[in-house]
Amino acid sequence: MKRVRLQLLLLCLGFQALSGQIVAQEAKRIADDPELERRVMNLSQELRCLVCQNETLADSRADLAVDLRREIREQMKAGKSDKEIISFLTARYGDFVLYRPPVKPTTYLLWFGPFVLMVIGFVVLFRYLKQRRELISRQPLSPEEHRRAKELLQVVPEKEPA
Amino acid sequence: MSRFVIPLAVFIVLVAFLAIGLGHDPGTVPSPLINKPAPDFRLAQLHEPTKSFTAQEMRGQVWLLNVWASWCVSCREEHPLLVQLARSRAVPVYGLNYKDKREDALAWLTEFGNPYLLSATDTDGRIGINYGVYGVPETYLIGRDGVIRYKQVGPITPGILQETILPLVKDLSK
Fold it and tell me: Do A87 and A126 lie in a common domain?
């Protein structure tokens, strides 16, 4: 068991080293301005690649993602703010490119729906509990029901399985 | 009685939502460019690279802009329909040759036929970004006023052409 765990650990470390290498290679190609590159990556973490929709623009190797990162890089070089670049992209691709959709009337359901459901759940739960408590205090068990409950609660010792 | 009715109702609502969800294509992202002016561009023509083509010069006409590439597999699927549409002269079809090599694009048109009055070459995909292109083929229907009225992501099907695009062309040409 211990050996397996060690192997797993080594495997993970190996992967990490490998991925480190890949990142280093990427960076080498475009490392003329590491500060700018960090800004590009930070912003593209927030953006969705439209081709492979579960990937961020930063992670994706799709052609379009490379082009869009180039676009972002050039706009940053031209002195545009992150906000301006985001509005550039949403004007062309819609809010869908944002991993954090803006709060506006069409997204109210998305943002607040879960909380509304939770409140409804609590209301239903409290009403149900209140109803049950009232029922217990209003009509306590009759002697006959008491006897049956006792009978049901008495554990009949079962035969131990062999 | 309500013990069964409520969970059943919840279940039916859930199934209805899931059924609607199944009908949606997650690959189709609604374009914010609908009913917005088509972004202008000046690009070299594919057949005569010394000449240029601009979106501006199409003002006053209803036209289709079809984004295509020789490397795009679905474009082949759509192509015969475009050729047919061009022959019918129902609406002028222009091409935006997206991120392609000139030789490849020309060879492709020779092989499969050229439905385009002309194609503009967007070699580095910048105009594609302005049009919100994310998957070729994409087709834009642009009105006389230069406003995008419809966008088709993925190949045009005969159904979409007959039921959506051609009626819209008719409306816009009035």
Answer: no
Q: Which amino acid is at A1?
A: M
Partner residue facing A93 (CB), from B29, B125, B126: B29
Domain that holds residue B151: 34-173
Pairing verdict, β B138-142 and B148-153: antiparallel
The tokens describing A45, both together, are 């973490």
Q: Is B154 on the interface with A (CB under 8 A)?
A: no
Which residue stretches of chain B have pLDDT < 70? 1
3-state secondary structure of A135: helix
Looking at the fold, whether A37 and A96 belong to one and the same domain comes out as yes
Residues A100-124: b if buried by 16+ CB within 10 A, e if exposed: eeeeeeeeeeeeeeeeeeeeeeeee
DSSP letter, residue B56? G
Is residue A161 scored above 70 in pLDDT? no
- Find, in chain A, the residue whose alpha carbon is nearest to that of B129: A92
The residue among B24, B28, B29 with the most chain A CBs within 10 A of its CB, best to mutate, is: B29
Question: How would residue A140 be classed by pLDDT, with cut points 50, 70 and 90?
Answer: confident
Q: Note the pLDDT of residue B137.
A: 94
Of the candidates A72, A102, A132, which is a domain's last residue? A102
Judged by CB atoms closer than 8 Å, whether chains meet at A67 and B30 is answered as no
Domain count within chain A? 2
CA distances from A145 to A134, A140, A152 (A): 18, 9, 10
Chain A with chain B: Cβ pairs closer than 8 A: 41
C-alpha–C-alpha distance, residues A126 and B103, integer Å:
72
Q: Residue A8: how many CA atoms within 13 Å on its side-chain side?
A: 5
Establish if B29 belongs to a structural domain: no
**Which chain B residues contact residue A96 at CB under 8 A?**
29-30
Same domain as A96, residue A116: no
| 3-state secondary structure at position A40 | helix
Q: What is the pLDDT of residues A64-99, one digit of tens each?
A: 999 999 999 999 999 999 999 999 999 999 988 998
| Domain housing A54 | 31-102
